[in-house]
Design a protein that fits this description.
The chain is of the alpha/beta class. Helix content is about 40%, strand content about 20%. Helix 2 links the parallel strand 2 and strand 3.
Length: about 240
């Protein structure tokens, strides 16, 4: 079986992403996807309507990125899955390269290289460091576009029903199963809003601190309280 981008379901979890969603869906379509599932966790800004108008299938679920992404996977009928955050954009060649890799592998576990949408050495270093994290620690994050064969995803249980750190938990389960993520050369463009709001160093240290707290036993639900959603109106934590 020779796979093509039409064999990929792109799953986009959203809560109040009206400003990003149309461009995100368009990037998936421009990369060749014909199956785009937007999973809405309770948006109040018209995100579901934007998704529907852009040609995506809209699924409603309980909020929480792990919950939403799993709901999207359950609605997929294709052999490949690509989980895409709403503030990210796939490059036009991304899904084609994913399929080239999938055609040579029975089980697919991959992600893309990042391109943060700001000029500056600190962002290039951040991109490089995140690529090394995938290679050295076998831990891709959600903003790198985690891709899996559908069979493998469900065989290992998929994303846990948690509001936060679902990508870290999945990476740990993959590592335990002996799966190594393939870092593809195609790019995924990243909205820099978190780094702009908090600063690169501060945001990176925050991420490391949350990861250490997870390792020490704090639950993803507890950790989510320390990492406010992008659409929260209060800015008490610097967001």
């Amino acid at each position: 079986m020779c796979l093509s981008p039409s064999d990929v379901t792109v799953v986009i979890p959203v809560i109040n992403e009206a400003g990003n969603l149309k461009a995100c869906i368009e990037s998936a379509c421009n990369a060749g996807a014909i199956h785009v599932v937007v999973v809405d966790g309770g948006s109040k800004d018209g995100s579901p309507e934007i998704a529907s108008q852009a040609g995506a299938t809209v699924v409603v679920s309980q909020p929480g990125r792990g919950i939403q992404q799993h709901a999207g996977a359950e609605n997929a009928t294709t052999p490949l899955l690509c989980f895409l955050h709403a503030d990210c954009r796939l490059s036009t060649e991304a899904l084609a390269e994913l399929c080239d890799f999938a055609n040579a592998e029975s089980d697919v576990y991959a992600c893309f290289r990042q391109r943060i949408q700001l000029a500056g050495l600190k962002y290039r270093l951040l991109e490089h460091g995140n690529a090394l994290r995938v290679k050295w620690f076998k831990r891709p994050y959600g903003d790198q576009g985690i891709c899996l064969s559908t069979r493998l995803y469900f065989h290992l249980g998929g994303f846990e029903a948690v509001p936060f750190m679902e990508d870290v938990l999945l990476a740990e389960r993959m590592k335990q199963a002996g799966m190594r993520p393939q870092l593809l050369s195609a790019k995924i463009e990243i909205d820099p809003r978190r780094w702009q709001q908090n600063g690169v160093v501060r945001q990176t240290l925050r991420n490391w601190s949350l990861l250490q707290k997870l390792k020490k036993g704090l639950s993803p639900t507890e950790l989510a309280l320390l990492y406010p959603r992008h659409d929260r109106e209060d800015h008490e934590n610097g967001d």
